[in-house]
Structure formats: structure tokens, C-alpha cells
Amino acid sequence: MTALAVEALGFAYGARRALDELTFELAPGRFGALLGPNGAGKSTLIALLTRLYDLQQGDIRIFGHSLRHAPRLALRQLGVVFQQSTLDLDLSVQQNLAYHAALHGMPRREAQARIEEELLRQDLGERRHDKVRTLNGGHRRRVEIARALLHQPRLLLLDEASAGLDPASRLALGRHVRNLCREQGLCVLWTTHLLDEVEPSDDLLILHHGQRVAWGKAGQLGDDLAISFARLTGDEALGRGHVREALRANLDPQARRSGFSREHPTEEPQA
Ligand SMILES: Nc1ncnc2c1ncn2[C@@H]1O[C@H](COP(=O)(O)OP(=O)(O)OP(=O)(O)O)[C@@H](O)[C@H]1O
Known about the structure:
The protein is an alpha/beta fold. It has eight helices and eleven strands. A hairpin with a 2-residue loop joins β9 and β10. The longest helix is centred in the middle third of the chain and has 18 residues. The chain binds adenosine-5'-triphosphate. InterPro entries: AAA+_ATPase, ABC_transporter-like_ATP-bd, ABC_transporter_ATP-binding, ABC_transprt_ATP-bd_su_PQQ, P-loop_NTPase. This is ABC transporter ATP-binding protein. Keywords: ATP-binding, Nodulation, Nucleotide-binding, Transport.
């Protein structure tokens, strides 16, 4: 069974196309990284996944349930950590979770059991009575992950979850979330614009001008992801002329051998 299937998704703001025939799949237990420069269409995809926007073209299936035809069943399988934190800093970790559970109508006894499980799963057991204000950024993110998982979804969406964290906390958070995938079979879609958050074993989707320009195992895209990213998105800041030759030499044959697909090749970055 596929955890997430995005099928020929298209979306436009009036005449402005933000997503164009976007298609990709993630399996249970996989960590999917969604990478794209500003304006690539990441936020639009998230707005569609979370039903902030109605679908225009195509469909999204979450564990087989169509967001178009069975949205309630589909969303039941989805947990979301948004970029902007909505934790109450003056409540304790446990109170934040209990508050969320109550708001969503979870019976008190069930909520207590789930909160307990998630606190342990997110290594937050010892911080349960601490006010969120006293937690560092990485721990606050874990509280949000615990909260997003209270209803036991099997797909977790994290939108720029590492924003504002220092480099060590970013790495630690990434490790933590990948462990959830490996050990608990959770499927994760992690959006970022930071290349160093992507690991070779991740499923990587590179989005550019609303189109999928690359899709496959990140490690198969090339030795230097920064160069490949610049090549695929024509990112001036990353891809100056001197890297183009290196790319021509090693990325294309490697991509062909590995089966990593580069679609809709974009124009060459201008030197
Ligand atoms: N409300 C809107 N009205 C009109 N155009 C929009 C609107 N929101 C986004 N767009 C356009 O749609 C395209 C995709 O934008 P989107 O915000 O989804 O990209 P993004 O990858 O999330 O970028 P960023 O990282 O800068 O948020 C861009 O061309 C953007 O200008």
C-alpha cells in the first residue's frame, strides 16, 4: 500500500500556475524530502494536502483514501507540523498535548494513554511538566510532533520544521524523525529549502516552477547535491559556470545508471 500518492496534481492562482501535473509516491516507512527554491510550489502542495485549498486538478491519496472523494478518511491518516509553532509557551508539555486532545474530542482516558506513549516515543518523558517556554527549539518541535501524532496518523507532514533551529538541533531533529520512519514505519514528507537536511537514503523530490524536476533516492542524484540542485533549478547562487562542467561529466551518466529521474530539464544556469 502506498502511504502518499500525488496524482497529476495541478493548481493555479488565477492565471498563475503554481503546480503542474505533479506526480509522486511515498511508501510507508519512507522519509521523503521535498526541496525547492522560493516559489517552487511547496506551500501550495501543503495547502492542498491539508485541504486549506480545494483540489483543482488531479488527486491526492493518503493510504488509499482519496482527498477528493473521501477527505475525512484521508485526513485521519495525516499528522501535520506547520512552520509556525502554535504551542502555548506558558503551559507544560503535557498540558499542551492534553489541550489539543480535548479540542479534538479525544476521550480523557484515551488521551492520557496516547500522551504517555508519545512523550516516551519523542524522548520527552522527563520534560512533561516543564513549561514549553523553557524548552529549546528542537524540543519544542518534538512536542509538536507528539501533538501531530496523537491521533495515530501514518503519514506525517513537516513544513520547514527546522526553520529557526541552530545547525546541531536541525541535524538532531532530522535524525529523530528518520528514526520514527525506520523504527515505527511512519511515512514522512519533510519540506525544506536547505540542501544539507537531505540524506542519501531519503526519497527526494525537487520542485521547480511547480514541476517535478527530479525524483528518486537522494544518494543517486550525484555526489554533490548542491551542484545537482543548482543544475536542476538553474539557481544562480549555487550554480556558477565552473560547476556546470563538473556536472556534465558526472551527473548525467550517474543519473542514468542509478535510475534517478531528472525531468523537464531546465535551462542552463547563466554564468
Ligand atoms: N495567493 C497567491 N496568489 C497568487 N500567486 C500565488 C499565491 N501564492 C503563491 N503564489 C505563486 O504560486 C507559485 C508557488 O508558490 P508557493 O508559495 O507554493 O511556493 P513555495 O515553494 O512554497 O515558495 P516559498 O518557499 O517562497 O514559500 C509562486 O509563483 C507564487 O508566486
